[in-house]
Amino acid sequence: MKEQGYAKARTMVEDKAAILSLLVLVVVVAVFRGEIREKAHYLFLLYFVILLVNRIDARYSIGAALILLLFTAVLLVQKKEAFANQVAIYAYYFLVVGVVLQLIEYIRHGGEEVAEVEGVSAATSIETGSEVKSVSMQSAGNMEAVVKTEAPPQPGAARPNDVGTRIIAIGSGKGGVGKTTIVSNLAVALSAIGKKVIAMDMDIAMPNLEIAMGVKSPPVGLVDVIKRRLKIDEVAFAGPHGVKVIPPGIILEGFTDKNVRRIRSILKRVPRADFLILDMPPGREAAKVLGKVHEVLLVVNPDAASVSDALNMKVIVEKRGAKILGVILNRVAGSGNELSIDRIEEALDLKVISMIPEDEKVKEAFSSETPVVSLYPESSSSKEFIKLAAKIASYGEES
Ligand code: ADP
Ligand code: MG
Description:
This protein is an alpha/beta fold. It contains 13 helices and 8 strands. An 8-stranded mixed β-sheet has the order 3-4-2-5-1-6-7-8, with helices on both faces. Helix 2 (40-53) runs parallel beside helix 4 (81-137) and helix 4 (81-137) crosses helix 10 (341-348). The radius of gyration is 25 Å and the shape is elongated. The chain starts with a helix and ends with a helix. Residues 172, 175-181, 330-331, 356, 358-359, 362-363, 366, 381 line the site of adenosine-5'-diphosphate (ADP). Adenosine-5'-diphosphate binds next to helix 5, strand 7 and helix 11.
């Protein structure tokens, strides 16, 4: 409830923009006839700084400029030219504020995206060439029976977003490796040790986190926040163990640059929680939402294809500046033709921080629309999910 209150507060900040625009308008009109008219540009400077500090977007100022321009047109029709001139000046001020804000927003996110993503494609194709070969050549190892449990955490974990929430993206190169399973179970296991957790489904092509968590949600989600139809707390649904679940909704056009920019700004203002866990779709498009403040866990299965695809993902994620906490090796059955942990770590140059066994109970739990840690807390996979949650939480405490 606290987090909802917080989201409301953030929402009010956005609404404040509209109120501020109006207020400035009123002040401008009041100042209009007085001697302090010359000082109007200071007011606009103040207005600009307020918008900038509160990260309020440019559309309100541009909207105000358009209204004033319309007003100017009306005045011109009425042949009140002097008056029209003055109003036009204020329209110009609003326009300048709006355009500069938009420019700053672009420099903050837009430009950086184009440059980084282009860099990624080059790096990926170079690095994977050699690495893929080495993975497939090593692919006939025996899986070690026990995971090398206390692999030291990669440094630099826990960099919270603006509101103090650790954002952890669960990603993979390949689909079907177990991301959704891990998100739902990690979320519940973290919640069970007293953490406030939000799980967000970013997989717009195959959204199934809601099913995995048994959330009967109306067909709304992140997309409605992107399109500014709803606030983030209006699309956060109650899941098991107090976990909040945010479905993606139907995002027809996918991860366009505009949507990516919106998602990045939404992520900065999620309702306050200890963790926001992102169920990422495979592929590079969605990785564009990630940046320096985000942590990533890469999911692989013990086979060469998933590991070489994870390598692509690793390069993309690192280019974005996100921190990779390590690898989760899922669906380990212990059969002879699985890749060993050593080989996976060597191929990816990352630590395997968790090994989840192949477990029939996972599938059973999915059919019951309940995470396995809730339904069968004693199952072999549940024990690993619980250990993983403790490990992830401890990374945060260390740094
Ligand atoms: P992704 O989100 O990466 O596409 P899912 O989490 O949907 O993958 O998993 C794909 C399938 O694999 C699901 O049917 C799921 O039940 C099954 N699965 C995932 N992890 C395990 C596991 N450890 N043991 C058994 N089945 C698993
Ligand atoms: Mg999935």
